[in-house]
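hey
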């Protein structure tokens, strides 16, 4: 049993650890390099492993089921539809490079494990997880009749890989090699904004000109009300679509895609209203940071250490090849580093982690494209994962 085993203690610890991570990022250069979000994930993994916090909690369920959905509209109130359309096309092209890498890596790794009848299913799960997300993992478990114990272990491993990969992706833009090899327009813009904010905060106040930057209760209530109203509409539409016989209703009715669409349209048609909602980015940022903490807390390292070599090797090689192939082809076709990293994130974690990374890094124009390419991965991930498993089955004579 974890030391902190009640919901209030877990929530308090999560918020205080998030605050501590942000403090470290601002105070120390090394923390700024790996980012506050990475510290949150890594710290949560460690705390969960050493039983300081539980691997399962109502707090994590609330974050995943409610706060994450609420974060999306908060962070899209100033969305630019033209930039979204332009960026989404690039990310979808990069996605196919990522998926190709995942497939190649998993198939090659699988050939080293000829004595297990579960290898084709593990391969399909690894490709599904590294080219789509949890939705595709579940589909492959059912398609290949993977045993419960193997399915549980593989799912845990893919979650751990996802968490560790996100930490690397968060840190990559600070690494000298990548800064020399790739263009980083979004990161440069975000750094300029952070520097400007720091300078503005340090400048002496002109007592003759006072500017009211305070956040009132009215502002918070209005912003939360609008955001929650959009969530309510989204859930209603999603449930309605789910009750129909529409083809691909699981994709069309995806809550994150619907709420992104509604918010972007609203922000485009009524920019004066949505753009002036105060506190939206701050509230959404808190929810996103709680989501990152949850990712780390639920990544069961103890289960990973107990799992078989085949699951670990196939999953790890598939994930590494995803990143390597994306970086190589991205360099060849002169894509900027942020687009590559966000797309890799979308393939291994889905739309939520990818958009969360865009928010955490300050790459505002990539937030919605990250969601869209993540949902695209959900849509076609099964068509990449199943052939990979079938190919391995044929090659191994399973």
């Amino acid at each position: 049993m974890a030391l902190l085993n009640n919901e209030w203690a877990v929530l308090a610890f999560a918020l205080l650890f998030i605050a501590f991570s942000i403090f470290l990022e601002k105070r120390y250069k090394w923390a700024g390099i790996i980012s506050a979000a990475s510290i949150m994930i890594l710290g949560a993994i460690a705390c969960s492993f050493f039983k300081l916090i539980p691997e399962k909690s109502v707090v994590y369920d609330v974050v995943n089921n409610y706060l994450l959905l609420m974060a999306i509209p908060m962070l899209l109130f100033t969305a630019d539809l033209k930039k979204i359309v332009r960026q989404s096309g690039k990310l979808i092209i990069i996605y196919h490079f990522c998926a190709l890498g995942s497939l190649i890596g998993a198939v090659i790794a699988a050939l080293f494990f000829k004595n297990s009848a579960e290898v084709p299913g593990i391969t399909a799960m690894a490709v599904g997880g590294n080219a789509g997300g949890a939705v595709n993992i579940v589909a492959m478990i059912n398609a290949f009749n993977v045993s419960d114990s193997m399915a549980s272990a593989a799912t845990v491993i893919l979650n751990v890989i996802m968490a560790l990969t996100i930490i690397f992706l968060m840190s990559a833009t600070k690494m000298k090699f990548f800064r020399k090899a790739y263009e980083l327009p979004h990161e440069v813009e975000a750094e300029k904004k952070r520097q400007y904010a720091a300078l503005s905060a340090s400048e002496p106040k002109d007592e003759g000109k006072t500017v009211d930057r305070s956040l009132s209760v009215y502002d918070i209530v209005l912003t939360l009300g609008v955001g929650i109203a959009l969530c309510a509409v989204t859930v209603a539409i999603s449930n309605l679509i789910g009750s129909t016989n529409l083809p691909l209703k699981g994709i069309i009715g995806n809550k994150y895609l619907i709420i992104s669409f509604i918010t972007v349209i609203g922000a485009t048609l009524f920019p004066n209203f949505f753009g002036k909602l105060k506190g939206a980015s701050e509230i959404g940022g808190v929810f996103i940071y709680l989501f990152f903490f949850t990712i780390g807390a639920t990544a069961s390292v103890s289960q990973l250490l107990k799992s078989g070599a085949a699951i670990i090797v196939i999953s790890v090689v598939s994930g590494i090849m995803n990143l390597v192939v994306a970086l190589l082809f991205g360099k060849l076709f002169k894509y900027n580093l942020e687009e590559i990293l966000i797309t890799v994130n979308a393939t291994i974690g889905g739309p939520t982690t990818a958009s969360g990374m865009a928010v955490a890094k300050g790459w505002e124009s990539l937030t919605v494209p990250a969601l869209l390419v993540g949902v695209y991965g959900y849509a076609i991930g099964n068509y990449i994962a199943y052939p990979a498993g079938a190919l391995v089955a044929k090659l191994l004579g399973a």
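Residues 81-110 form the longest helix (30 residues). Residues 197 and 203 are 10 Å apart (CA to CA).
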